[in-house]
Specification:
The complex is a heterodimer.
Chain A (H helix, E strand, L loop, with lengths): L1 E6 L7 H11 L3 E5 L7 H4 L2 E17 L9 H5 L21 H5 L5 E16 L2 E8 L6 H14 L6 E5 L6 H7 L4 E6 L3 H16 L4 E6 L5 H13 L4 E5 L3 H8 L10 H31 L1
Parallel strand pairs in A: 1-6, 1-7, 2-5, 2-6, 7-8, 8-9
Antiparallel strand pairs in A: 3-4, 4-5
Helix pairs in contact in A: 1-10, 5-6
Chain B lengths: L1 E5 L7 H11 L4 E4 L7 H5 L3 E14 L9 H5 L5 E4 L2 E4 L9 H5 L5 E14 L4 E6 L7 H9 L7 E4 L6 H7 L4 E6 L3 H17 L3 E8 L5 H8 L4 E6 L2 H8 L9 H19 L1
Parallel strand pairs in B: 1-8, 1-9, 2-7, 2-8, 9-10, 10-11
Antiparallel strand pairs in B: 3-6, 4-5, 6-7
Helix pairs in contact in B: 1-10, 5-6
Chain lengths: 297, 276
């Protein structure tokens, strides 16, 4: 099973639109939405939820006031300002590290597991779909992503591919989404901010030694910057595997909960089809090269 | 006055709104809290005068003092330290810098050393401040915390937050007087707006909404706001011209006085909203 993670650095460049389109074109695959604090893929993909579970992804300190002697040691130890003047735990700030538990002289503090989100596995016409929703403002988004990917593993049925919809950024959620993936596809847009963010997310893929390809969405919005992206990719050895034109009908279709493919946009459909062919060839090729390397090493 | 700009969904126009506001209201401080992918500099073009490394404390064990008891590993909730074959192994990237292992060690064999996970950058007159997380680092909270130590009290402060609704956004928004939620009229934008609204309601901060790429055809965001009695502060219509200028790092307020006065009005609404 090959895992392809779609990321972007910058938000709103079209990850979910591309992944939902591919969910129609690609056969024999599973889907995972790893953008756990703002998941969107489930909006376009209907299915029957076959498993729904609370995820206990963090711990939180709890002070037993009947035992507490109000020495304040916990407050001075906490590095996250999570204990108030009145010696109450501030749940939004508590990281669940347990330093206060160790330091409390009368054992008045304990760590309790807290729910940080919900995981879902759905059967859909387009394959088994694993997703999650982080509780509002919760900790541990990276761990929840890992849980989404575990569910892929638990519910797989000899599928050939997993399409992973990632999140914006380069931090814990993105790292948890791409770790162990066979390839990263960075969806970019030709804007100065898009280019800046693309470079950072590609560096992350490189840092973790995952092959990365680039797809330029709305490429005709600014052809100069598209050229800059292409040049950057050539110099740094990231293949550009597709360019999708700007088309207002894509947004119109989305407003009716449709992918560009369902809306019958032929030019975009053809380009996305080509992008998938490129991904398939390159992933297989990388795999063969690695296998050959292994043989000779 | 501290104003946080957030969105839930990425790419809806947080930076457009925060940077436009910064250019429209006279002297203020713009703070880019999206330390994973900071973009405000593209539009505000500051001259960075000061780069300050952000260090976190990670444990290091003194092999001579360590007796391999493993208490540090038991104390660590993040699996960032472990004793394997009598030797202490530290995984610095996933360390949360809490100091629990240090307290737990009965031999006082652990000390903490500095490790750089990012930088903060400041311009000459301290009107621009941004954080940047180093490549490969997962945890951005310490950088946001450093930024927030440097917020000014003598001028309005605009905090440009990261997308999503997780702990980084909570860290950025905490202590602010008002939140501007930026969204776009798509099912994705609306879905994530609802998450952001819930977050800000939980934090009990006054807020209002800016609809970016607004169109007459889709009033879903406006309907949602009306039903929930949320003030719409500003609508920025979808325009190819704005999108093209944006791609080059140019904001509408830079060459259009009308937009500047619209953002001045936005600021007045924010001031009124924060006082309520």
């Amino acid at each position: 099973m090959k895992q392809i993670a779609f990321v972007s650095g910058k938000g709103g460049t079209g990850k979910s639109t591309l992944v939902s389109s591919l969910s129609i074109l690609v056969k024999d695959k599973m889907l995972a939405d790893c953008d756990v604090d703002a998941p969107n893929l489930h909006i376009l993909i209907n299915g029957d939820i076959i498993k729904q579970e609370d995820y206990l992804g963090a711990k939180e300190a709890v002070i037993d006031p009947s035992v507490c002697i109000e020495c304040g040691l916990c407050k001075s130890t906490c590095r996250f300002d999570a204990i108030s003047e009145k010696l109450e735990i501030l749940p939004m700030m508590c990281e669940g590290c347990g330093a206060c538990v160790i330091v409390c002289p009368v054992k008045a503090i304990s760590l309790e597991e807290v729910k940080t989100g919900q995981t879902y596995v759905a059967k859909t016409e387009r394959g088994t779909f694993s997703h999650a929703l982080l509780d509002i403002g919760a900790e541990g988004s990276g761990k929840l992503v890992t849980e989404v990917r575990k569910n892929v593993h638990n519910y797989k049925n000899d599928e050939k591919w997993v399409l992973i919809d990632g999140s914006p950024g380069i931090g814990c959620v993105v790292i948890a989404s791409i770790t162990g993936a066979d390839a990263v596809v960075a969806v970019s847009e030709p804007t100065l901010s898009g280019l800046s963010d693309l470079k950072r997310v590609l560096s992350v893929a490189q840092h973790f030694q995952i092959p990365a390809f680039v797809c330029i969405n709305k490429y005709d919005l600014n052809t100069d910057i598209t050229k800059q992206i292409e040049e950057y990719c050539i110099v740094n050895d990231f293949p550009v595997i597709g360019k999708i034109p700007f088309d207002p009908t894509i947004v119109k279709a989305l407003q009716q909960f449709k992918t560009p493919i369902e809306a019958g946009n032929e030019i975009v459909t053809e380009e996305i089809r080509k992008i998938w062919e490129q991904i398939m060839c390159r992933v297989e090729e990388n795999w063969t090269i690695n296998k050959t390397k292994r043989r000779y090493l | 006055m501290k104003i946080a700009v957030l969105s839930g969904k990425g790419g809806t126009g947080k930076t457009t709104v925060s940077a436009s506001l910064a250019l429209s209201i006279g002297k203020c401080q713009y703070v880019d809290c999206d330390v994973e992918e900071p973009n405000g500099w593209v539009f505000l073009r500051p001259e960075i005068k000061n780069t300050i490394p952000v260090n976190v404390l990670v444990p290091e064990a003194d092999a001579l003092k360590c007796n391999g008891c493993g208490d540090c590993g038991k104390a660590c909730q993040f699996h960032a330290i472990a004793v394997v074959k009598g030797k202490v192994l530290v995984f610095p990237e996933i360390c949360h810098h809490c100091g629990a292992c240090l307290i737990a060690c009965p031999q006082e064999a652990i000390r903490e050393v500095n490790r750089e996970t990012g930088v903060i950058e400041i311009n000459e007159d301290n009107t621009f401040l941004q954080g940047r997380l180093n490549i490969g680092e997962p945890i951005s909270i310490p950088i946001i915390r450093e930024l927030k130590k440097r917020l000014r009290n003598d001028v309005p402060v605009i905090l440009d937050c990261s997308p999503g609704a997780s702990c980084t956004v909570v860290q950025s928004v905490g202590g602010c007087d008002y939140c501007i939620l930026v969204t776009e009229p798509t099912p994705f934008g609306l879905h994530d707006l609802k998450i952001a609204v819930q977050l800000i309601k939980n934090m009990e901060i006054p807020f209002g909404v800016v609809v970016n790429k607004a169109s007459q055809d889709n009033q879903s965001v406006q309907e949602f706001c009306k039903q929930n009695q949320i003030e719409i502060l500003l609508e920025i219509p979808y325009s190819q011209e704005i999108a093209q200028a944006y791609s080059k790092g140019i904001l509408p307020v830079e060459h259009n006085g009308d937009w500047k006065s619209k953002f001045e009005e936005l600021y007045q609404k924010v001031e009124r909203g924060a006082r309520k």
